[in-house]
Amino acid sequence: MSRADHMDVAAYALGVLDAQEAERFEEHLATCWACAAELETMVPVVGMLSGIDGETMMALEQTQTDPALLDRTLHAVRLDRRRTRMRQILAAAAAVVAFGALTGAGFATVFHDDRQFQQAEPAPTVPTAAPSPGPTSTDDPNIGDNIEQEGEKHNATDPGTGVRTTMFVASKDYGTQIYVQLSKLPGPRTCRLVVIRKNKTSEVVSSWSVPGTGYGTSARTTPLELSASTSAGRNDIDKIQVQSIDASGIATPLVTVDDL
């Protein structure tokens, strides 16, 4: 078995032999366990050397007379691949710069100011404590008369709890919008707003926590104001109720608007 036969192992692994040479080597490989073993060891490096063309392989064959040529050849291949990779990186960077120049401030906003996304997100409906337009006594049973809101106005005071409310109910394409103002509402407690339909089904449309000072009380004179909506049509609603929820989840009515 000649040295040339062993050199065919690398050439065969890389697929650079012509059909006649490949057939001759395969006949040799069937009877030479050394070449078969060497071919098996070549498999892991085939991927690394797959970019070497036929001319480079011819140069590799010359390492029979110049062993140092192999190292120089492999070094040249690695250097060429590094240069190709660097050109790809520079081209990508140039594309990013060009895109940034075209899009201007919008590009900077997307990649450098995520607060824009946070501002774009819709805020959930939450109860807010807002002062009335002018000095209003919480002893006035018609508290909220001076508030301008859309929809039908309804006042109610619960004789047992003393909680007072003014509600505005407006019909919408999507259902019904409800604006609520509450006073004489002590805390701390957890409350919810419930829509009770004429078919006796109910829907919780809002919930909130009441601090220890309450709302519309001597400790905190400003009433609680909140808005909510329901898919129920205006004519399908029988009553709207504010309920207090204890730690066990048991609901207790605080005030009810039932003159709808």
TrEMBL record:
UniProt key word Zinc: yes
The keyword Lipid biosynthesis appears for this protein:
no
Please list every transmembrane segment annotated in the UniProt record, as residue ranges: 89-111
Q: Which GO terms describe its molecular function?
A: zinc ion binding
Low complexity bias: start-end ranges = 120-138
Q: Which Pfam families match?
A: zf-HC2
| Superkingdom of source | Bacteria
Q: Which UniProt keywords apply?
A: Membrane, Metal-binding, Transcription, Transcription regulation, Transmembrane, Transmembrane helix, Zinc, Zinc-finger
Query: Which residues belong to any copy of the Putative zinc-finger domain?
Result: 10-35
Query: Which residue ranges does the record annotate as region Disordered?
Result: 119-163
What is the recorded name of this protein? Putative zinc-finger
Q: What is the species of this protein?
A: Micromonospora auratinigra
Per the UniProt record, the lineage of the source organism begins with: Bacteria, Bacillati, Actinomycetota, Actinomycetes, Micromonosporales
